[in-house]
Amino acid sequence: MATRVQPETLPQGIPDAELVQRAARGDQAAFERIMRLYNRQLFRTARAILRDDGEAEDALQEGYLQAYRSLGSFRGDARLSTWLARIVANEALQRLRKRERRAEIVPMQAGMADQELEGIADMKTDKSPEAATHSGELRRVLEKQIDALPDDYRAVFMLRAVEELTVEETAAILAIPEATVRSRFFRARSLLREGLALKIDLACEDAFAFDGARCDRIVGFVLDQLNRQEKV
Fold it and tell me: Are the CB atoms for 33 and 8 separated by under 8 Å?
């Protein structure tokens, strides 16, 4: 049976440095606050590398355990979120290397303007039920295309575009040069634009379908009208 998590008892606004100090002394409420602050970002980091919700969750949990044991070594040279993300990314990468097989990468073709890709984010400003439905559909399409990115590009894209981390932070988390972050991010955006454009092209072929019942209904109506005229 899962352990029931009690509500936090700490006041709001405690700086990260103090939370780390408290957690290092065994204050689990402080560590809970840290986890709640960075859960989404760290899950996305692991998910970007592993492409699997369950594995990402396992990697995040193990990463937290490693971080808790290493809190005494945190010196504040980097942001706490970056330090944690580096630990979680390492755990996710280790799990990735242990896989015996890798998922196939979906080929992407054709071009798409930057405005079309960025337009997906604009859906967030419309709160109507219709917009929520369309936004959910677009989100699922975008998530599938992100999952289809090669591993190296996907991790960079998630950290830079989704989590909005800086080039420097992304480079520190993934242990790669800043120039590599920039080139991979550019390539990831290009692949996403191309992949989304292909899906739009395929969808356009099926848009406003004119077969089946509608076709029969219109043909039947016209023939019926012609028969009526001939009888007059």
Answer: yes
Neighbours of 58 (CB within 10 A): 16
State the Cα angle at 88 between 87 and 90, rounded to 5°: 65
What is residue 43's three-state secondary structure? helix
- Spans of all domains in the chain: 16-98, 114-208
Could you state, in chain order, the average pLDDT of each consecutive group of 10 residues for the chain (232 residues)?
Answer: 52 89 90 91 90 90 92 86 93 79 40 45 50 62 84 90 89 92 92 78 58 67 74 68
Q: How far apart are CA 232 and CA 228, in angstroms?
A: 7
| DSSP state letter for 123 | G
Q: Which fold has domain 114-208?
A: Arc Repressor Mutant, subunit A (1.10.10)
Nearest to 196 by CA among 232, 149, 162: 149
Rounded CA gap, 2 and 128, in Å?
Answer: 37
pTM: 0.63
Q: 16-98 maps to which CATH number?
A: 1.10.1740.10
Which residue in the block uniquely carries the two structure tokens 């092209």? 201
